[in-house]
């Protein structure tokens, strides 16, 4: 019977950041079983890692929301690396994924993920966006094919958003990412809504910061940034934009361990 861990990512204290379930498995598994396990945990993502015989990678890594498998997830990748640290597996960790090779390494007391950057390209605001978010966008851009970045007036606007989740779910985007420059403490704040993949609001989202990092690096004129995702749980990230890659640094904390009776 497989073991699991629930790990809070992008936080140095329990019951904050973004929780992910992590299963480090030895053998192949059935896709339908993995989707069922993710639905049972009912967290924004459940990560499944297993060793692979590959000179370029150590583990296969896949991520499932309660309803679908996704191509890229930051917090569950960070949580998986943290689980491997606790299991005594030496890093750095090389994962083969739907988004190519991803690596995670320890540096300065944090785990740092190396992800592909997705600089947002400006687009016209889609019909219904302002009404769905409850505020007028200042700037709208598309990161990759699926993630919509929306700059809004200020930090207070980001924090105070009460969007129409059903209306956001009708927009054709994986993530909707409202953001603004922070007033103090960090460089910028954001929130992330993803109802199209079964997540009303994601607490802390590494994937979103592959879009946010290049956007704010260009706005602020520097490539090293600090960020806060202003969900109810909240989470903190350090970022380094390196052209076609983004390094995302954060802490993680294990909050539960157990065994599946499956």
From TrEMBL:
Matches recorded under Gene3D superfamilies: Diaminopimelate Epimerase, Chain A, domain 1
Keyword Lipid metabolism: no
Keywords from the UniProt entry: Isomerase
Hydrolase found in the keyword field: no
Domain of life: Bacteria
SUPFAM superfamilies membership: Diaminopimelate epimerase-like
Family classification: Belongs to the PhzF family.
Record-given protein name: PhzF family phenazine biosynthesis protein
């Amino acid at each position: 019977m497989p073991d699991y861990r629930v790990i809070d990512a992008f936080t140095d204290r329990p019951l904050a950041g973004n929780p992910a379930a992590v299963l480090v498995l030895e053998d192949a598994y059935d896709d339908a079983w993995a989707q069922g396990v993710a639905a049972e945990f009912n967290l924004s993502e459940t990560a499944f890692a297993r060793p692979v015989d590959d000179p370029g990678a150590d583990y296969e890594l896949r991520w499932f929301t309660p309803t679908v498998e996704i191509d890229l997830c930051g917090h569950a990748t960070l949580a998986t690396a943290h689980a491997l640290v606790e299991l005594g597996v030496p890093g750095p960790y090389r994962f083969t994924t739907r988004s190519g090779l991803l690596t995670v390494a320890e540096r300065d007391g944090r785990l740092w993920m190396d992800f592909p950057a997705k600089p947002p390209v400006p687009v016209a605001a889609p019909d219904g966006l302002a009404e769905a978010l409850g505020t007028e966008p200042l700037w709208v851009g598309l990161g990759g094919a699926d993630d919509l970045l929306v700059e809004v007036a200020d930090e207070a606007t980001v924090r105070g958003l009460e969007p129409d989740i059903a209306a956001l779910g009708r927009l054709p985007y994986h993530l909707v990412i409202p953001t603004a420059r922070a007033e103090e403490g960090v460089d910028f704040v954001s929130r992330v809504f993803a109802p199209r993949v079964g997540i009303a609001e994601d607490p802390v989202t590494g994937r979103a910061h592959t879009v946010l990092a290049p956007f704010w690096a260009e706005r602020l004129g520097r490539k090293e940034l600090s960020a806060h995702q202003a969900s109810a749980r909240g989470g903190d990230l350090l970022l380094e934009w390196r052209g076609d890659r983004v390094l995302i640094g954060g802490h993680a904390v294990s909050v539960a361990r157990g065994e599946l009776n499956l």
